[in-house]
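This follows on from our talk about sequence and fold. Go ahead and set the record down below:
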Amino acid sequence: MKEAILSDKAPAPIGPYSQAIRTGNLVFVSGQVPFDPATGEMIEGDIQALTRRAMDSVLAILEAGGMTASNIVKTNIYLADMGDFAAMNEVYGTYFTDGTPPARAAVQPARLPRDARIEIEVVAAD
């Protein structure tokens, strides 16, 4: 059985997908790019601002599902430019202060939706 999770504090889906799906004790959060939830438009800024916006969307969705950053067990980060890795990592690390950061992959795909510079998806467990 699966249940959709939706938060108005994160950008609405731009296609036929859910912000997140809960099945059993797992929540799968769809990839979040740095859209402003109020306007649905990409925010401007450096990779640190973009990372913060994407992570804030991830956390808003998790909150709607009754979870927090400490529930994240796996993160996939997609960067348009791997040269942004160190700066992204500085911001990303601030979201995990409980001493046990999640498993993670970071890759550079050929292209991201709407030419975003970053996309972040997570799996969380309770």
